[in-house]
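[job 4471] stage=fold_predict status=RUNNING
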Amino acid sequence: MGRKARRAATTRRACPSCGALIAADNPDQLCQRCRRTAGAELHGPPRVPEDFWDHEAMAAAFSDRNMGALLAAYRHHPQHVSRVTQDRMASWLGISQAQLSRYETGENPIDRIDRLRHFARVLGVPGDRLWFDRVGIPSQAGPDRGAPPDVLVAAWDASSIARSVEETARNDLAISRRAALSGAAAVAMGTSLVEPLQRWLHPLQPLSRWSSAGAISEEELAALQHVADGLRGWGGRGGYGLARKAVLGQLEELAERLTRAPAAPTTERAFFIGAELSKVAASMSWDAGMHDAAQRYYVLGVRMAKAGRNDPFAALCLAAMARQMFDLGRSEDGLELVQLAQYGTRRTATPTLQALLLTREAWAYAQMGRVREFHRAVGQAQDSFAQRRPGSDPWWLDSFDEAELEGVIGARMRDLAAHDPAQAEQAERHIRRALSLRDPSRVRNRAFDVIGLARTKMVAGEPEEACALIQQVLPKAAGLASGRVVRKLQDFAKEAERHRDLAVVRDTREAIRGLRTA
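[job 4471] inference complete, writing structure tokens
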């Protein structure tokens, strides 16, 4: 064979689908046979039958809630007419082949909600198979007639705020949990979320001085507060059932009373009670995985607090909304909400509230990998917290104590360690201090601390120590019935995937899977 012939042979390309050599005069990436067979699959996923998703490998990926494993199972599915290569799937998803490879091996866990939704939408994953909050994938059944009111567009006068709360609570009481999870609307994001909330910075239109009903009496107000105090204690228990319905029922009744109440100091205080209940409902909804409902009640909490002339509590609700955005992978939206809260309370925030908002700002920077801004915000938070004065804070800031400050800083340093591994050592130090300070009665918070410490150990390359910590917390997690705790454990299981060759890791991941099933 001559030199030219050998050179031509070595430069021949193989078809990535079937492996056959491609003719020298064929400029395509596929051979002619695969081009005819694949057809439209070159530009997007093929149509698949309903039983496609029941394959054993697919079912395992759904059970593990692992999008990377789902992508791999999809590619290797035996029902495909032609082989789906990583290059081909990567082009469908709009990512590189190297990114897809890291996703499939678990080297880069897929935890951003927008990316999970995008991949599910491209591949056509049925909505009832999705595990990530079950919102954001457009329904093929058309608009839901029982859709909740849009709380972001309602007017900002006190009467409209009360009516919005009443309608929302009544709507949510009328639907089942299954309907809420399967038919929920997508959470608002970006400008559609932030811009309407900027209205809280403007003066509130006052209530009418006259009403067909009498003013709320001090006795009535005391009774409302007593009920709210009892319901508030359920906010940390998690779950969906009767506790959440009790909160929504009381919120609906209070809002109905407020639509008929004239302007008065007791009316403003009743609005603030409504803000408290709205925030409890939001926390319960978030714990149950209903992000859209949680967002509605956080917005209503902001609005009710505004009507109750309590801007600092409105800022607390905005901070909670920001934390929800961080959980959904929307760090930019979360940062804008925090900055909105900081601006609105720039003259009224106590040092403790300032410190809390600064930790939320640092949270955003940690997710973005902005190390310098993160440490600046953390330093300012610590300085503000050191300036707090006993007795100067409202009761609703009592939970933000030194243990919470240390826990939040430590957990966010763990997030930052994904971008800068040197942060892991500091993260462990802060989380251990949080555990030493944490009240033993704060069982769920302590569970978050231990899981955070275990995830830090995993980042630091200590999987055995990490699994030992998780094994300690699993019995308590089983008794909490908290969706957020379970989801944090699932995050750990995903991060442990790269150490799945270790028996202790396999056992721990299996125990977490059993907890979710139970």
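[job 4471] summary: The domain at 50-129 is CATH 1.10.260 (434 Repressor (Amino-terminal Domain)).
[job 4471] exit 0
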